[in-house]
Design a protein that fits this description.
binds 5-O-phosphono-beta-D-ribofuranose, 5-stranded parallel β-sheet, alpha/beta, about 170 residues
Length: about 170
């Protein structure tokens, strides 16, 4: 059996999946095994707690938790595990996600949640990959390639801009 750690992507509602799927896609593109579930801190609190408590034994290395409104999901999962938990505040209310951002990021001392931007699913996946890459050199190599390709794209855009400016 492979000892490659999995990432759990948990969302408070299936209505969050439109945002969350870019994290799932990024993890899959990096070759990281991923499990995706709907679980709510409010509607299924026992299931959420049990999942987090068993996650390390099940082979997970990082948990990503996405939720909107009064977003307690990431904090509740973090309360039941010592695995790193990354929170994605989802913009799903009249408060434009500010409610979820504060609920996710403002954890009391002792139970951290590494919180990304509102709807920042892609960064959540990259951060999870960086955590797993601490003990996975092949994955670290893929992340280096990804950064190099990002830098090359910016250089291309800069060159195109120079040509446009020159033509003015
Ligand atoms: C949160 O409430 C979910 O994470 C979602 O962002 C929001 C709305 O959920 P639904 O009413 O669409 O199921 O718990």
């Amino acid at each position: 059996m492979s000892n490659q750690k999995k990432v759990a992507v948990i969302m408070g509602s299936d209505s969050d999946f439109g945002v969350v799927k870019s994290a799932v896609k990024r993890l899959k593109d990096l070759g990281i095994p991923v499990e995706v579930h709907v679980m709510s801190a409010h509607r299924t609190p026992d299931r959420a707690a049990a999942f987090a408590a068993g996650a390390e034994k099940e082979g997970f290395g990082v948990i990503i938790a996405a939720a909107g409104k009064a977003a307690h999901l990431a904090g509740v999962l973090a309360a039941h595990t010592t695995l790193p938990v990354i929170g994605i505040p989802i913009k799903s209310s009249t408060l434009d996600g500010l409610d979820a951002l504060l609920a996710t990021v403002q954890m009391p001392s002792g139970i951290p949640v590494a919180t990304v931007a509102i709807d920042g699913a892609d960064n959540a996946a990259i951060l999870a990959a960086q955590m797993l890459a601490l003990s996975d050199e092949a994955l670290a190599g893929k992340l280096r390639e990804m950064k190099a390709s990002m830098a090359a794209k910016v250089a291309e855009k800069d060159a195109a801009l120079q040509a446009e400016v020159e033509a003015l």
